[in-house]
Amino acid sequence: MIHAQSRIRPLLLALAFLLLAATPTLAFESEADDPVRVLFLSKSSGFQHSAIKRTDGHPSHVDTVLAQVAAERGFEITSTKDAGLINATQLANFDVVIFYTTGDLTQRGGTGEGFFRGDGNPPMSADGVSDLIAWIEAGGGFVGFHPATDTFHGEADEITPYIGMIGGEFTHHGAQFPGIVRVANAHHPTMKSVEDGWKIMDEWYLFKNVAEGKLHVLALMDPGEEQAKQEVYDIAPYPIAWCRELGAGRVLYNAMGHREDVWDHEMFQAWVGDTIEWAAGQGEAAAAPNWGDVVP
Ligand SMILES: [Zn+2]
Fold first, then answer.
1. How far is the CA of 203 from the centre of ligand 1 (A)?
2. Residue 49 Cα, ligand 1 centroid: separation in angstroms?
3. CATH of segment(s) 34-169+209-217+242-284
């Protein structure tokens, strides 16, 4: 017995060593091979943007562009207007969640008159926001585009948990105009395709309740000549894209994307693809607060 054991032990040690040595390689390969799983929610409980409107069962403009970006990058994407999917059980199936949403998503909407009546698609449960934030804190990636900050507003000065998470709250906008995108951190993994000084027509949101001390600003919008044309934009360049870490997860907001032709732009599509990869945990987070250094 003693002799047998002494022969087996070195073999076991050798085997354990081989497994340990092989483990990092195996983990790396499986990480690279697993596609990023993305859930795209475009429910409107308030104003419904044309870019995410589905007509006669056809995918929306943004559905189509995101499907194209996903195909190019090897992501698996699920596009939905069912906010009920934002729950702990469903979120466990995804690496990244994208919101292009408006209003209080716990409201179905869809009845009554006017621009802000909502689309009537299934609402989020009362636990949806807390499930979403817990999922991000445990390592999930959240990306908000354009009206994602026009979602879950607070009453008066209240900052809702969702607004606290995304880092800012939409207040108003003026007429559309070609804004100048100023890159705040050209070295950030999400900014490698975005040209500093890119001039592009869009609807430019303005914000309140911005979590200045918690955000890493990625890009500002410089109104340029528009300062002299519209009073609401007679202001210094201000942040329109930012990111942060939240627990083990990552959050990024990009205010652009009202217009269909923004989504069609090659540079925007590259930015979107890089954003999703970053939100999925690829590359450095590089999300240390930098407001004081980059915002005039
Ligand atoms: Zn808009």
1. 6
2. 6
3. 3.40.50.880
Choose among 214, 217, 207, 215: nearest CA to 168: 207
Helical pair 61-73 and 266-279, crossing angle rounded to 10 deg: 70
Residue 178 alpha carbon to ligand 1 centre in Å: 14
Q: How far is the CA of 260 from the centre of ligand 1 (A)?
A: 10
What are the tens digits of pLDDT across the range 101-128? 999 999 999 888 887 889 999 999 999 9
Q: How far is the CA of 103 from the centre of ligand 1 (A)?
A: 13
Per-domain boundaries in the chain: 34-169+209-217+242-284
Residue 73 — very low, low, confident or very high, per pLDDT cuts 50/70/90?
Answer: very high
* Distance from residue 130's CA to the centre of ligand 1 (Å): 26
* HEC profile of 115-135: CCCCCCCCCCCCCHHHHHHHH
Residue 173 Cα to ligand 1 middle (Å): 8
| pLDDT (average), residues 19-29 | 45
